[in-house]
Design a protein that fits this description.
Elements: E1 9-13, H1 18-29, E2 33-38, H2 41-55, E3 60-64, H3 70-83, E4 89-92, H4 110-125, H5 127-132, E5 137-141, H6 164-185, E6 192-197, H7 214-223, H8 230-233, H9 235-242, E7 253-255, E8 258-259, H10 269-291
Parallel strand pairs: 1-2, 1-4, 2-3, 4-5, 5-6, 6-7
Antiparallel strand pairs: 7-8
């Protein structure tokens, strides 16, 4: 295994399972200075030990963070900046889906909080490092489910109506809009932002190993034999994060290493800008509430 990532600093969320763990393993083997973000201390430290043992790379660290709480995401970013003066790759990969929309601890629907606001808060808190690191990359995990999403800036952040899968689809649509607006705001720097869809992956995420209700559980069970491995699902993530061939892509939604056309709402530049403005406001309010 080539050690082409020696000296590169990488931060990845959702690295204790699935495609995140597969990507973290690849980064570690290639010599990166790696930080993995996890919520459960015991599980995250077990993954840390496994990564070090499998790769022989001791430059791996842990940040514990509850990504459902915006203030904790901001705190984790500050902890990271206290340890590092550069960030070559930020991977926003952690995510969740639920049987039904659920209220999170900050007063936002939990799927939206975990799958969008955590991406937004972590990235914007680290923008100073990303802007000053030559050739920095931000990679966010979206989903083909984005095609079913419908974003309503007034209702989506707090609505408990509709189904869990629809809330997930809307959060994955938000990932694309966030990526496009982020890339616009990175103009004048060498940093690039892209997102991707991993396809249907055989992991504990979603229907594989979780209760999504009878119908979706049946769909997942039928699809499981045809699903990709976590390593296959992580391919576009790793490629976007490390390949010289990916540097020409900016603000794209990628499938199988190729730009793909997302649904119509994802192409709305004004909606992307408005989502950014709203996300700034919601995150600032959540941080202020937590400080009281």
């Amino acid at each position: 295994m080539t050690q082409d990532l020696v000296g590169k600093v990488i931060l990845i969320t959702g690295a204790t399972d699935g495609i995140g763990k597969a990507a973290a393993t690849e980064f570690a083997r290639r010599g990166a200075t790696l930080t993995i973000v996890g919520r459960n201390k015991e599980k995250t430290e077990q993954v840390l030990a496994g990564l070090k043992a499998a790769s022989g790379n001791q430059n791996i660290d842990v940040l514990l963070c509850d990504l459902s709480r915006v203030a904790d995401v901001k705190r984790a970013a500050e902890d990271f900046k206290a340890r590092h003066d550069r960030l070559d790759v930020l991977v926003n990969n952690a995510g969740a889906t639920f049987k039904a929309p659920t209220m999170g601890p900050d007063g936002f629907e939990l799927t939206f909080a975990l799958n969008h606001l955590a991406y937004f808060q972590l990235t914007t808190s680290l923008l100073d490092l990303l802007r000053k690191t030559p050739g920095a990359r931000i990679v966010s995990t979206s989903s083909g489910m984005q095609a079913r999403g419908k974003l309503d800036l007034e209702k989506t952040p707090t609505s408990l109506n509709g189904s869990g899968p629809n809330a997930y689809a809307t959060s994955k649509l938000a990932n694309i809009l966030f990526t496009k607006e982020l890339q616009r705001r990175l103009g004048g720097t060498t940093a690039i932002a892209n997102c991707f869809e991993p396809g249907t992956v055989r992991t504990q995420f979603g229907g594989f190993g979780s209760d999504q209700g009878f119908l979706l559980n049946l769909v997942y069970s039928l699809a499981k034999p045809f699903a990709s491995t976590p390593e296959q699902g992580a391919d576009s993530l790793i490629w976007l994060a490390t390949s010289p061939d990916a540097t020409s892509l900016k603000g794209e939604y990628v499938s199988k290493r190729r730009p793909a056309r997302p649904q119509k709402q994802a192409l709305d530049a004004q909606l992307a800008a408005d989502l950014w403005t709203l996300s700034e406001k919601l995150c600032a309010e959540a941080v202020a509430r937590a400080a009281r």
